[in-house]
# Entry
Amino acid sequence: MIMHTIPFSEFGLSEPVLQAIDDIGYEEATPIQTRTIPLLISGRDVIGQSQTGTGKTAAFAIPAIERLIADKEAGVQVLILCPTRELAIQACNEIRKLTRHIPFIRAAAIYGGQDIDYQIRQLHSGVQIVVGTPGRIMDHMRRRTLMLNSVKIAILDEADEMLSMGFREDIDEIFSHIPRQRQTVLFSATMSEEILEITNLYMTDPTVIRVMRKELTVEGIDEYYYNIPHSHKIEALSRLMDVYRPEPAMVFCNTKKQVDELVSAMQQRGYVAEGLHGDMKQQARDHVMNTFRSGKVDILIATDVAARGIDVSGIGAVFNYDIPQDYEYYVHRIGRTGRAGKSGLAFTFVTGSHEMAELRGIMKYTGKEISNSSIPTSAQVMECRRKRFALSVCAAVEHEDLTEYIQMVEQLSDEGISPVEIAAALLRSEMTSGGKTAIPSEADDFAFAGHERRRQGDNRRQDERRERRKYGRLRGNERSSHPTSKIYINIGSSAGLLPKHIVGTVANEAGLPGKSIGRIEINERYSTFDVPQEAAESVIEILNRTRIIGRKVTARLYTEQF
Ligand code: ADP
Ligand code: MG
# Structure
């Protein structure tokens, strides 16, 4: 999601809450959290709307906990109404996690279907936070085992669900027992007339915060693809940069390693490029982003994960240096291009028939054709550079005072260098960025063209068969020609680990395609899985920093003899 978020450290939260957030592993606040937490801490009534899964629970729980820490009063002070027992249990668990370093704060989940005596004992033992479903809450109110006269914060969670489940009257009843002098909070994924009615009845001057997903579309973007061998991608990228001049441009790679390699390759060729990926310290990332935003960097080369949440406008072109692992990623990546009033440009490199199939999948997903195109020839690149030089010369002659420089040329020609030679030397320097940018080689033209002919010609089917065989080998057979490394992690089935957790974590955090993860073996206390050898080191490093199913893990290369 492309939206502004901030680190939790910027809310001025208390130490034990920050510690708990860190334990859970949240790195930064989600957009809805970013916008509602400060308001809620200031005591305002808030209506928060955002999609499911955007972290609304912590958005209301964190400010409520802060209030409890500040007041330290007895009795039920926070009441949270949820539509279902599952949601009540979930919210209560999240609250318990967030309060694990604050022993005096206790929360109870109160829902139908659980032994009522157990709940009565819980309520009796003194809880400040009650999370419950309306029916069972009313039950306890009638039994006078739950008193709401000390409630200071009333929260309606998943309000739309609550209403569609017919809890309107229960809500009215419950609210009639809560002191009017309170903070009232309502969170919902959708809004309706009925919800607005509730807010009118029960809230005081509420602030409405809506965080809707920015609809990304591929409309107004010209999309091209190039079927080229992997070894020619750097040259292809350079030529497209030279001809289209789309600065600032974003280039997406699937792995951090590829980002690093491409950044140094492009820098060596004289381009002003910087990289962005998850291994970089926050400070370094901020620095790169600032230089890119300010226009000092022409090309930002990034992984999907690192680029998440980055919203830079006016991107001239997006390059899919590696074809994205996910159709949705494609839309996210290219949705960043397009300048005001002008159409955006998206270039995708594909290698081989397997990636061609993926590209066709992307076209189906977006419903838009991506046109096949050819990499500009060296002659075209040079012609572009020449035209650009001619334009800049014309502009200088017309608009600038060159007297001083004309004198210098005259002086040099007195010394025996002809004006034509002077101009030629300057032209060479200009067209190669001072000798840094290579003149594109014609040999590469043949390689590009040759590849295209092969792809289109008789060899095509044979070529595809070969690709398929190669791909089949990679997937199925461990003894493939593609070298893999076995990675060990110190959790297994006893911790509830499933193969999908490994695939998910490695794919999300290391940016490795799920399919590149080979054989996974889950034992009771440890697990192993294969990754491409070149990715092993960074996968291990990442796993040692991240959590799988909420747990810190130790990862290393697997050796038979430990
Ligand atoms: P919602 O109520 O909006 O549907 P939840 O509060 O249930 O969303 O949160 C959805 C998931 O996101 C949960 O697994 C939660 O632990 C996680 N989550 C919440 N806040 C963050 C955060 N700041 N960073 C990462 N994950 C988060
Ligand atoms: Mg929720």
